[in-house]
Amino acid sequence: MQKIEVRAFGDLKKLFEQRGWGFPLMVDQEGEISAADLAQKLDLPKEKIEIVFLNGKTQRLDCLINPGDRVAFVPPGTPGPYRVLLGFVQKENGGEK
After folding, report:
1. Distance CA 74, CA 52 (A)
2. Rounded-to-integer distance, Cα 12 and Cα 45, Å
3. What is the number of domains present in the chain?
4. Phi, psi at residue 11, to the nearest 5°?
5. pLDDT over 90 percentage in the chain
6. Handedness of CA 97, 95, 84, 82 (dihedral sign)
7. By C-alpha distance, which of 61, 68, 84, 92 is closest to 1?
8. For 54-75, what is each residue's pLDDT tens digit?
9. pTM of the predicted model, to two decimals?
10. Which domain holds residue 25?
11. Are the CB atoms for 27 and 38 separated by under 8 Å?
12. Could you tell me the maximum CA-CA distance found in the chain, to the nearest angstrom?
């Protein structure tokens, strides 16, 4: 079975630590899965996820993840200037995926 490399930041990283998960967490996954479904599979609260990094690019929770991908869940609260630099603003306004 192939794996997805999963990381988290902020309070979500603390949740990984509380659960005793590795960093990165390697998740078995046969085929494609949305970031929202992966969060549900990991029992991560969606309201605590603002954006997803998929292979280094910002994405919304509806993005599709494939085995071999690298994913990071980012909680709300990233400071303003970083929101623009990291591409959060385009995702919030429904811009390109």
Report:
1. 6
2. 9
3. 1
4. -60, -30
5. 66
6. negative
7. 68
8. 998 989 999 999 999 999 998 8
9. 0.83
10. 3-92
11. yes
12. 40
Angle among Cα 70, 50, 19 to the nearest 5 degrees reads 65
- CA–CA gap between residue 94 and residue 37 (Å, rounded): 20
DSSP notation for 35-85? HHHHHHHTT--GGG--EEEETTEEE-TT-EE-TT-EEEEE-S---HHHHHH
Residue type, 88: F
Facing residues of 71 across strands? Answer: 6, 54
Q: In this structure, what DSSP letter does residue 33 have?
A: E
Which 3 state secondary structure label does DSSP give 10?
A: coil
CATH number of the structural domain spanning residue 17: 3.10.20.30
